[in-house]
Design goal:
alpha/beta; binds nicotinamide-adenine-dinucleotide; single chain; two-stranded parallel sheet; globular
């Protein structure tokens, strides 16, 4: 089937394009290259032997979105990754986030609403749960008030999709990712953060390379076994595979509701110090780090209950935290040598 992947040259999008092509689907990518590069197409080609069709379109331009769907009137399957994702930047510049993450979503849904049938997968996030009261987090764990404009765009995005699906022929799956890390085993694609990495693992690998002086660990007095925050780190290839399963579920009309929600995580929490230990083991080197005060906005612990994804989608992760960190480190070494 033909599938539009917005943000398909980004970190999770590019890995998903590979898995879609490997499963025999035809992919059309829209990306404005705001956080990616056209070189990623070569990486996808090197892995799959197929060059996906690519259009450099900024989804904030409604006219360009309308024109795209006019030219591709047969497209009815969409995986929507395109968004801005830096929490700190969203606090500093909320309107940029509301425009990019919400306006773009509305323009796409306005086109889909006109169709007799369409399938939509949305990149949501575990940030919608905030600091949940009980662990692990299930899909029924209550949503908490968003801690940042970025988190709010994911909550609002979910609500918009749910409202539109009720009155249209759009069927949707909302995928709430935990913390994606790692790279494709071929090392042809991986994460390419611009500027100072916002996420722990790219910061660790860059520190391991000597690009960053040291890692700052924000707080070791949290109520966790070693005092540092706990997250659920999922290998990006495992995450990408879930998108193929979710899209095929919609295409084959196996969905039980107009809008379904799934947590995508490993079900295991790792503390910041656990991740550092994994890095030191796989790299064979000590990581320079310093414990500093807690950072505002960090929740203590989040990890997923993955029962629903396992039983309903028949999906579960394959990679351990060590394998995921090893692949992120291998990718860092490759990128820096290139
Ligand atoms: P990414 O920045 O690597 O990929 C996003 C892609 O979208 C980039 O290639 C960017 O150029 C493109 N893009 C952004 N705005 C666009 C626009 N207006 N028009 C066209 N293209 C545009 O990010 P990612 O890590 O691959 O994340 C993908 C999605 O998953 C995002 O929606 C993000 O919010 C969500 N998510 C990511 C994480 C994470 O930790 N990486 C966690 C939870 C949810």
């Amino acid at each position: 089937m033909k599938i539009l992947v917005t943000g398909g040259l980004g970190f999770i999008g590019s890995h998903t394009v590979v898995e879609l092509q490997n499963a025999g689907h035809e992919v059309v990518i829209i990306d404005n290259l705001s956080n990616s590069s056209e070189d990623v197409l070569n990486g996808i080609f090197a892995i799959t032997g197929i060059l996906p069709s690519f259009e450099n379109i900024d989804l904030r331009d409604k006219n360009l979105v309308v024109d795209f769907f006019k030219r591709h009137s047969d497209i009815q399957n969409i995986i929507h990754f395109a968004a801005s994702k830096a929490v700190g930047e969203s606090v500093a510049n909320p309107l940029l986030y509301y425009e990019n993450n919400i306006a773009s979503l509305i323009y796409i849904l306005q086109e889909l609403e006109k169709k007799t049938a369409s399938n939509f997968i949305f990149s949501s996030s575990c940030t919608v749960y905030g600091q949940a009261e009980t662990m692990p987090i299930t899909e029924n764990t209550p949503i908490q008030p968003a801690l940042s404009p970025y988190g709010n765009t994911k909550q609002i995005g979910e609500e918009i999709i749910t409202d539109v699906a009720k009155i249209s022929s759009i069927s949707a799956i909302l995928l709430r990712y935990f913390n994606p890390i790692g790279a494709h085993p071929s090392m042809n694609i991986g994460e390419l953060p611009s500027g100072v990495p916002q996420n722990l693992v790219p910061f660790i690998t860059q520190t391991g390379m000597g690009i960053r002086k040291e890692l700052l660990v924000y707080g070791d007095d949290y109520p966790t076994p070693d005092g540092t925050c706990i997250r659920d780190y999922i290998h990006v290839v495992d995450l990408a595979k879930a998108h193929v399963i979710a899209m095929e579920r919609l295409i084959n009309k196996k969905n039980l509701d107009k809008v379904e929600i799934f947590n995508l995580g490993t079900g295991k929490g790792s503390s910041v110090l656990d991740v550092i230990t994994s890095f030191e083991k796989v790299s064979g080197q000590k990581l320079p780090y310093k414990i500093v005060d807690r950072r505002e906005g960090d929740v203590t612990t989040t990890y997923a209950n993955t029962d629903k994804a396992k039983t309903v989608l028949g999906w579960q992760t394959e990679s351990s935290i060590e394998e995921s960190v090893a692949s992120a480190w291998k990718w860092e070494l490759k990128v820096r040598k290139a």
